[in-house]
Amino acid sequence: MALLPAPSEAVTGKVIHAGYRNLPPDELVDLAIESQITRIVKRSLVGGDESFFIADLGQIFRQHRRWTQNMPGIRPYYAVKCNCDPTLLKVLAELGTGFDCASIEEMRAVLNLGVDPARILFANPCKAPAAVAFAREVGVLRTTFDNIDELDTIKTHMPEAQLLLRIYANDEGAFICLGEKFGAQLDTTEELLSRAWELGLNVIGVGFHVVGTIGTGATNPASFCKGIKDARLAFSQAERLGFHPKILDIGGGFQDDCFESMAPIIRDAIRSEFPAGITMIAEPGRFFARSVYTLICRVISRRRQLGNAALSGVPDMLYQNDGIYGNFMNVIMEKEIMVPYLIKNHRYSIWGPTCDSTDCVVREVTFDSEVKVGDWLKYKNMGAYTTTTATQFNGFSSTYDTFYVNSETVSDY
């Protein structure tokens, strides 16, 4: 972890604050970018050809404010798989969020911040026995299940677990739909709950996730409404067996650009199906992380088209120091269209550094000026499923510096 040099920082015991409080957030981020690029160029820093992030911690506060205003009474359990940056986790912990962890390492990352294990949901319905035993050892008792064998594993390794039944839900309009991997169909939930009752386990709630891959966004509020309605049926099944479910988990998949329009529909659906007194939680990931981070990449090579390719208008090719095996996995997983901005004020395609011919980040983009080797490109909204999906394929680094600024005053929260 690296911090920008003065005057852009002032460090307190809690979070990193940045100066220039009168600057709009985008200008503060751009100032930090320029500061780091200047530092790299002047000092010829080793590793200066690696991409790096600028994270505006103030955006975490603004997103948290949006959540509490639009989803009152629904506690967010941040999906750690989205971005496990310790600074991001620390700020969210201080804001009082819970945490959705799916592995031993994710639980460790949160527990190392001093977070109470009761604020962690082990939200993986298919866990290794060793992971269940670890959760019990550290006091993370809330976890999910969606199959018979998982119940047997939990009975053996954590019989005092507080269980949430994960039911199937899907959004046909989601970027990627893999609902078949997790979630019990409604025609199986009664059998699963009966087995849990026979084993003497404690089912405390029901949850769903309208998408089934790495946090891909859902755009259809009807999918949440159906999930809530189906959860009500599972609640009733559990109550008839003798359980006392008290938690509804509406999962993740919240999209930044349609959040305000979807939130009231989700709230109304909950009110129509569930009485007061039910504890409501959610598992947002990208909602909190995506817009916090800006990724800066350097152009390491350029291929100008010649001959017939040039005559037919084939874009020139830029090669940058990051690609789909690094922070751009979303280009493949979610078919996300990346929008680079030229830091320094024709058409290009943009490629990652590996030898794989599929390592293409942008097929075609137009800049206002010619791009040369050594120039820098800026990618906004790069906080979700970037560093956590990066690899070391072809021997390239998967470690990236992050420099922090804060466009908000923490005392206001």
UniProtKB/TrEMBL annotation:
The modification N6-(pyridoxal phosphate)lysine is found at K81. Its cofactor is pyridoxal 5'-phosphate. Gene3D superfamilies: Alanine racemase (3.20.20.10), Lyase, Ornithine Decarboxylase, Chain A, domain 1 (2.40.37.10). GO terms for molecular function: ornithine decarboxylase activity. Belongs to the Orn/Lys/Arg decarboxylase class-II family. Keywords: Decarboxylase, Lyase, Pyridoxal phosphate. This is ornithine decarboxylase. Pathway: Amine and polyamine biosynthesis; putrescine biosynthesis via L-ornithine pathway; putrescine from L-ornithine: step 1/1. The active site is at C355. Signal peptide: none annotated.
